Amino acid sequence: MDLLEYQGKQLFARHGLKVSSGEAVGSVADAVRAANAIGYPVVVKAQVLIGGRGKAGGVKIARDESEVAEHAERILGMDIRGHTVRTLWIEHASDIASEYYAAVLLDRSAKRPLVIFSVEGGVEIEEVAEHSPDKLVRRHVDPLGALTRAEALDIAAAAGADEDLREGVADALVALYEVWSEEDATLAEINPLIVTPQREVRALDAKVSLDGNALYRHPENQGLSDRENQDEIERRAAEEGVQYVKLDGDIGVLGNGAGLVMSTLDVVARAGGSPANFLDAGGGSDAQKIRQAVELILANDAVKAVLFNIFGGITRCDEVARGLIAAFAEISPQVPFVVRLDGTNDREGRRLLEEAALPNVHTAKTMNEAAEMVVALAADKGVGAAA
Ligand code: GDP
Ligand code: MN
User: Fold this and answer.
1) Which domains, and CATH codes, for the chain?
2) Max intra-chain CA distance, the chain
3) Which of 47-56, 199-208, 375-384 has the least mean pLDDT?
4) Rounded distance, CA 145 to CA 136, Å?
5) The dihedral of CA 57, 61, 64, 68: what is its sign?
6) What ligand 1 atom has the least distance to the C-alpha of 41?
7) Which residue among 97, 189, 344, 373 is least crowded, i.e. fewest CB within 10 A of its CB?
8) Which atom of ligand 1 is nearest the CA belonging to 54?
């Protein structure tokens, strides 16, 4: 679960990381009111779940009330690479002497947390990473311990931070590591971590992703998801407890088990198709659950055909077939379905489906065959070519 900048900064502040205080607002009038209370100059910042806001014109400094109104007016509603700005963060503008970079993330291949730090942060960090990777200091941390102060000081020195700043950098790194570990984050990044002319080290931006599976341990973080900007179908699915992720294509996909669904996405792509979603039906097979899943898949207007990929284990294929038949009786979908049933009672499942003769439902025995059929159907070519 990705957090907006200001939500990330609230987490930072809870762990003692220095940030500027400010206010999140949703209208020009509130932006002006907040700026007047905070004191000028202020910075008006688009709150969207995508980086590069500065370059896109979504971060502006305002010296007085009329400039705040002007920037707020222009940034609210702005589209930043597919993300509509609905919230602004207004904070007192900082004077910047240097821009550093700091991040903590999980290095899966090393099975350890990784701290990355550079004294060359700012909006060109990708350039730095690509052309002078030696400017990024990378240190793994013992996952059973924490980032120690000595390690943090060592990182600051290795990166070439000025001597008088190393204590401040170490404070920031230790606090950032604490955010990452105690909040169950998968990423905690600050770019830029600024040095002010008064030689203070402070987080000017925040990019935090929390592990959704650990949210139950953090009831105080549960309200942080960007609900306003969340996809409507994903929001509904989350409310219904269904694992659904919207994708860009036109082939609806349902499978039982996350791994099977992932490989189904791959097989559809290899057959030349483009999946419209990820949906893991888990062990559910009753008509109610299947109907719910079908409704979610079809709520996406882009869907031209649907692939059900069921591997029967504990969930038997005949149960799934019955669930599907009951669901079809209630919703009679207008797009073609391909159902691949394999595993426990697969023959019985396919027989039930064939007997029910549901309009527009095709059965397949293998995953590849099913993928080819559904891709042909989505392209409106019929199943003749593949079947
Ligand atoms: P991003 O572009 O989405 O990463 O947004 P940032 O919050 O990192 O802001 C982009 C850039 O705007 C920063 O790297 C700074 O150079 C600049 N900026 C942001 N806030 C301030 C501020 O308070 N004062 C000044 N002088 N520049 C700022
Ligand atoms: Mn940034």
Assistant:
1) 21-92 (3.30.1490.20), 98-224 (3.30.470.20), 232-386 (3.40.50.261)
2) 79
3) 375-384
4) 23
5) positive
6) 23
7) 97
8) 2
